[in-house]
Design goal:
By secondary structure, the protein is mainly alpha-helical. Helices cover 64% and strands 5% of the residues. The protein contains 21 helices and 6 strands. A hairpin with a 2-residue loop joins strand 1 and strand 2. Helix 4 crosses helix 10, helix 8 runs antiparallel to helix 21 and helix 12 runs parallel beside helix 14. The structure holds arginine.
């Protein structure tokens, strides 16, 4: 009896001779997670109702009743008073039923010329559009924080690494700006995904469109969509926009994860390039001396969740024939989880970057190790006329000699230098300094402090222009 009532509650009991089992009801219900779409659902319904009224499918009185009912429902949801019921399967049926309880037949008329198939596709797109806007703002915040830090460290010298071995000196500002470039591309990808997300499925109805004289463009305009989905079958069935979001989110998190890895390395006491503010770290329950970089480590770990969401959605979609299939109900949790992970991570990172304490002395010390100016010496010999390959060979010998003697290149005496090559004169000293090395890379995209300042100005202008 109770189950029969459940089928009745869903509004299709007429077709069935037995109710769904309790287990099936729980298995098929989505309200526990899709209730996050509630405000988008109401927004979509209001636009749909206004259109129905303007084309003569709904009276003014019914529209007014729907509007006031929805206002009340929104209030109930925002105050946490709304009674969600899994008997009503999903967010759409829950809200529609409450509306009908509140305003009677007007509520039952709302679903004219609409199906849950175009309704849910619309809701997900509206929700995701809002989330993309949040992500875009957070990417701006993070880039600003990185740029501000880079500005303080345009002249700070650190070792640049290849194969995690000291390679050539770079400026810390330049290193940070590499991440600004990555996050700028992530923002481009998000904006691009937003354009394709921002299209209206409503009007596609279940799959074939509707026999009512609807005005889809009006609905699109009132919801701020850039246009309508042009094919009804495509409109209700494809979730490529959500996949695109997870793909852009995966790349973004990949960048966050690389940055995190560096923060962890830089903060290791062995390296000691930076310190993170205490509020982003935790201690150990057993080792009193520890201060662990938990936030970057967790961000590195959470990157996997976002990749997982991408894989879920790609797999969800690949076997589906046109048009809507219930598989698509499974699109929401991965999208929500990816969005939550990205939003929370970016929020914390923008704050964390602002609090990075840089230990420039440790960076400089490390940059001086490992013969990081060897390339500069080779370039010097080339400028004196030696072919590059011969210069490379001569410097390699010099490095070996210095290493055996436990010295740095700069510590070799003038005689030792001349033994490497008679072309070396006293002017080599400037070339072997760290400051001379970075200053020499003074071209667009190079690490010289002057270039870093130029890149900072350009990045600020780019952000200000939006
Ligand atoms: N909860 C469903 C979803 O998320 C809504 C669409 C249901 N449509 C259907 N034909 N069963 O996809």
């Amino acid at each position: 009896m109770a189950d029969q009532l459940a089928n009745k509650a869903e509004g299709w009991s007429g077709r069935f001779s037995e109710p769904v089992s309790e287990l099936v009801k729980r298995y098929t219900a989505s309200v526990d997670f899709d209730r996050r779409l509630a405000l988008a659902d109401i927004q979509g319904s209001l636009a749909h109702a206004a259109m129905l009224q303007s084309v003569g499918l709904l009276s003014e009185a019914d529209l007014a009743a729907i509007q006031s009912g929805m206002a009340q429902i929104r209030g109930e949801i925002e105050r946490g008073e709304f009674k969600w019921s899994i008997d009503l399967e999903d967010v759409h049926l829950n809200i529609e039923r409450r509306l009908t309880d509140l305003v009677g037949d007007a509520g039952k008329r709302l679903h004219t010329a609409r199906s849950r198939n175009d309704q849910v596709a619309t809701d997900v797109r509206l929700w995701l559009r809002g989330t993309i806007d949040d992500v875009l703002q957070l990417l701006v915040d993070l880039q600003r924080a990185l740029i501000d830090l880079a500005d303080c460290h345009a002249d700070t010298i650190m070792p640049g690494f290849t194969h995690l071995q000291v390679a050539q000196p770079v400026t810390f500002g330049h290193h940070l700006l590499a991440y600004v470039e990555m996050f700028a591309r992530d923002a481009e990808r998000m904006s691009d995904c937003r354009r394709r997300t921002n299209r209206l499925p409503l009007g596609a109805a279940a799959l074939a469109g509707t026999s009512y004289p609807i005005d889809r463009e009006q609905v699109a305009r009132s919801l701020g969509f850039e246009g309508v989905c042009e094919n009804s079958l495509d409109a209700v069935s494809d979730r490529d926009f959500a996949i695109e979001f997870c793909s852009a989110a995966s790349l973004l998190m990949m960048h966050v994860s690389r940055f995190s890895e560096e923060l962890v390395i830089w903060m290791s006491p062995r390296v000691g390039f930076i310190d993170l503010a205490d509020r982003f770290c935790t201690g150990s329950s057993i080792m009193p001396q520890k201060k662990n970089p938990d936030v970057p480590e967790l961000a590195r770990g959470k990157t996997g969740r976002v990749y997982g969401s991408l894989m879920s959605l790609l797999t969800l979609m690949k076997g589906q024939p046109l048009a809507y299939n219930k598989d698509n109900q499974e699109d929401k949790e991965p999208v929500f989880d990816a969005a939550d992970t990205v939003v929370n991570t970016l929020r914390i990172f923008a704050d964390m970057v602002g609090g990075i304490r840089v230990r420039a002395d440790r960076m400089r010390e490390a940059a001086a190790e490992g013969f990081s100016t060897a390339t500069d010496l080779a370039d010097y010999l080339v400028r004196k006329g030696l072919p590059f390959r011969d210069a490379h060979e001569a410097v390699a010998r010099a490095v070996r000699q210095a290493a055996t003697a436990g010295k740095d290149l700069a510590d070799l005496s003038s005689n030792e230098m001349r033994a490497i090559s008679p072309l070396i004169g006293e002017d080599v000293r400037q070339v072997l300094t760290l400051a001379g090395s970075v200053a020499a890379r003074n071209h667009l995209g190079g690490t010289a402090p002057a270039q870093v300042r130029g890149a900072i100005a350009a990045a600020r202008t780019r952000l200000a222009a939006g």
